[in-house]
From TrEMBL:
InterPro entries associated with the record: Rossmann-like_a/b/a_fold (IPR014729), Universal_stress_UspA (IPR006015), UspA (IPR006016)
PANTHER family: STRESS RESPONSE PROTEIN NHAX (PTHR46268), UNIVERSAL STRESS PROTEIN HP_0031 (PTHR46268:SF15)
Origin superkingdom: Bacteria
Species, as recorded: Zoogloea oryzae
Stretches assigned to the UspA domain: 1-147
Name under which the protein is recorded: Universal stress protein UspA
Family: Belongs to the universal stress protein A family.
Length: 147
C-alpha cells in the first residue's frame, strides 16, 4: 500500500519514539523511509537597547545546524538499518517547518507522512498550534499521526 514514508524528526524524545514506530510500520508494509529534519535558519539579530549579543557568525550557525541534522538523521537511519528497513535522510533550511515537511514529501515522492503529535488540546493547542496540525491541514499526501 505505502512505498515511501516521510518521517519528520527533530531529535526529541517524542520524535525518537515516532521514528521507532515508523520503522516497525514500514517493515510491516514493506516500505522504505525518508527521514526529514528542518534546519533552523540563522536568527535575525535584534539591535537596540537591551539587545543580547551573539558572537556566532552565520557560517558557524550553518555548520552547527548541518552537524545537528546529520546527527539526528544518522541515528534514525542507523535504527532503520538495524531493523532491515531501507531509508534515506533529507534536510533543508527552513523557518516554516510544516511547509518544508510537505515539500520534502513531494520532492521525495512519499505516499504517506508519519509524524508525532504532542497531543495539545483546547486553548493551548489553538494558541500554540502545532506543525502536525499544519501539515494535516495543508498536505495533499495522507498523514498518519502517532500519539
Amino acid at each position: 500500500m505505502f512505498r515511501n514514508i516521510l518521517v519528520p524528526t527533530d531529535g526529541s524524545e517524542l520524535s525518537a519514539s515516532t521514528v521507532a514506530r515508523a520503522i516497525d510500520f514500514a517493515k510491516e508494509a514493506g516500505a522504505k523511509l525518508t527521514f526529514f529534519y528542518a534546519q533552523p535558519d540563522f536568527p535575525t539579530p535584534i539591535y537596540g537597547e537591551g539587545a543580547l549579543f551573539d558572537p556566532t557568525t552565520p557560517e558557524q550557525f550553518s555548520r552547527a545546524a548541518a552537524a545537528e541534522a546529520e546527527k539526528i538523521l544518522g541515528l534514525a537511519k542507523a535504527a532503520a538499518d538495524a531493523a532491515g528497513v531501507s531509508s534515506i535522510g533529507d534536510t533543508v533550511i527552513s523557518e516554516v517547518p510544516f511547509e518544508a515537511i510537505i515539500a520534502s514529501a513531494e520532492r521525495n515522492r512519499c505516499d504517506l507522512i508519519f509524524m508525532a503529535s504532542h497531543g495539545r488540546r483546547g486553548l493551548s493547542g489553538l494558541l500554540l498550534g502545532s506543525e502536525t496540525q499544519k501539515v494535516l491541514t495543508h498536505s495533499k499526501i495522507p498523514v498518519l499521526v502517532y500519539r
